[in-house]
Amino acid sequence: MDLTFLLSVVLFILLSPLLYRIYTVLASPLHHIPGPFLARFTKLPYFLSIYRGQAHQDNIALHRRYAPPGQHFAPIVRLGPNLYSITSPDKAVYGVASKFPKSSWYEGWRHPNPQRWSLFPNRDIARHAETRRVFSSIYSMSSLVGYEGYVDTCNGIFEQRLRERARGGEWIDMTRWLQCYAFDVIGEITYSKRFGFLDGGEDVAGLIKALDANMRYSTLVGVYSWIHPYLYRMLEKMPNSGAGGRTYINQTIQRRLEERKAERKKRTVEGGGKAKLSVEEEGAPKDFLDRMFEMLEDGKKGVIPYHLFMLCMSNVVAGSDTTAVSLSSVLYHLIRTPRALEKLREELNAAEKEGEINGTEIGFNASMKMRYLQACLKEGLRLLPATGLPLWRVVPQGGATVCGQFFPAGEVGINTWVAHYDKDIWGEDVESYRPERWIEAEDQGGEKIKTMEAYYMPFGLGSRTCIGRHISWLEMSKVVPKLVRTFDFELERPDKEMTTQNYWFVKPVDFSVKVKLRAESIV
Ligand code: HEM
Predict the structure, then answer these.
(1) ipTM of the prediction
(2) Cα separation, 346 vs 193, whole angstroms
(3) Is the pLDDT of residue 275 over 80?
(4) 154 in a known ligand binding site
(5) What are phi and psi of 28, to 5 degrees?
(6) Would the CB of 314 count as within 6 Å of ligand 1?
(7) Helical H segments across 271-359, by residue range
(8) pLDDT band for position 268 (50/70/90)?
């Protein structure tokens, strides 16, 4: 056989995967969707953007770069061969009856053992709905009344620690303190026991470090999720790795759970076999685990022991950093916007005159009635939403129309940062902290507020919306008034925008302040 012919055949065979890739790109009915050239062939640019911790900013920049003339954002951009970032929270994708399951990116968030599933990364629509239905009551607004005392306990300790820092006059990392606060509140609500972070503002036993490592691992490995089961098994015994971090968190949660089981058993013995009544008889409030134990012992609700571990774990992993990030944003923006801070203090002073606030303590019900406070919180979570990647969902079999475009297959997702920075929705002052925008739109009524609410998604959307959102709102509504009434804050770098790093949770990295006691708080 002619050597040239033979070489041509070998070359063709070697190059055929690439040629096939080029063919599929050109023949794709979605080839007109804009995006970086490389993203047509590989997810690598997306992976690198996540790796750099700036995927939220990159995502916004792409929608701006490919915007059609006269528009601020391109409605759809490509982040990978089958990954499409959208700007509109389409009901088909995110509505309560959505048929779009979560994508394989979420695999990185679960243990490779299928028995050890959890709510957040659950990709099975039916199983997720069933589990969520069983437990929604313990996260509901009506359960919050029972959790308020736990928040008060931590608020008192937090205030004390900040008073000490005010006396010392040093610069403190406010995000770290808010993290300590949020972890301890979740510990109190879940097990009636703080983790102890607020004792000295330190990462007791390295739990935050382990969680950070796990966040980074899960966020990145999810992009190439097929590798996760192999990589996880290799890394899980290495203490400083992301998988090792997860193992460590699992063990900490398990230990806490065992302690509580032993306590409950003791109470049952002391109460002559009536554990269910013992907590209430002693007049103590019911924490999250008490409620879970009752459901387990009830036997009728399909609750199994694994559920207790799974939800305790979810509370700590999903409920601490997210609240800390959100609190950081609210406080940072209030400090940078003295007019808003002043207005908030005026509202709080007025509430005190009406007897709604006792010193610096504010009841949750009263706080929910304060329009300006609520607007300050909402605006803080708009400008710095705690999660910073598209909420990826898989186009169901047979394809579907999303944002006016038919997708035969692939994955679509909206990034909360993209939704919150769309000038067409929020106006030219999209980047300003302006709590008034919420009050004005509410008073105006009609389409404006409906559109704002539809695009406001710090807690996600539809059936997969955050189950713990009321708990975090309880914390924020109570601690923000306390902080701004007790302290003044000075930013270390007032002329510099706060920077953030995004490994799914978008964390501020340089929120350094000095706290000072306000004149009326010096006691
Ligand atoms: C300000 C604080 C919080 C923010 C910004 C936040 C944000 C979110 C977001 C965006 C999602 C949906 C993610 C997706 O669709 O992929 C979510 C889900 C979830 N969050 Fe939160 N969260 C917060 C607080 C909490 C708290 C306090 C808890 C628990 C006590 C919690 C537990 C969960 C769980 C278990 C899920 C999964 C729900 C499901 O798939 O059914 N979160 N959160």
Answers:
(1) 0.98
(2) 35
(3) no
(4) no
(5) -65, 135
(6) yes
(7) 275-281, 288-298, 305-319, 321-336, 338-353
(8) confident
Best CA proximity match to 348, nearest among 436, 478, 472: 478
d(CA 432, CA 405): 32
Contact assessment for residue 296 and residue 303, using Cβ atoms and an 8 Å cutoff: yes
Euclidean distance between CA atoms 475 and 491, whole angstroms: 23
Amino acid 175 reads T
Amino acid identity, position 113? N
Domain ranges of the chain: 125-521
In the numeric block, which tokens belong to residue 452? 């704002």
CA distance 111 to 231: 12
In the predicted model, what is the mean pLDDT of the chain? Answer: 92
Q: How far is residue 76 CA from its own chain's centroid?
A: 24
Residue 315 Cβ contacting ligand 1 at under 6 Å: yes
Q: Is 203 left (phi over 0), alpha (psi -120 to 50) or beta?
A: beta
Nearest CA to ligand 1 atom 40: 120
Q: Which of 1-10, 22-31, 276-285 has the lowest mean pLDDT?
A: 276-285
Q: How far is the CA of 445 from the centre of ligand 1 (A)?
A: 28
| pLDDT for residue 282 | 58
- Is the domain spanning 125-521 CATH 3.40.30.10? The answer is no
- Number of H helices and E strands in the chain, helices first, is 22, 13
To 10 degrees, the CA torsion angle through 128, 134, 140, 146? Answer: -140
Minimum-distance ligand 1 atom for the alpha carbon of 128: 41
CB 357 within 8 A of CB 351: yes
Burial 313-333, CB ≥16 within 10 A → b, else e: bbbbbbbbbbbbbbbbbbbbb
Quote the CA–CA distance of 334 and 207 in Å, as a whole number: 30
Q: What is the largest CA-CA distance in the chain?
A: 99
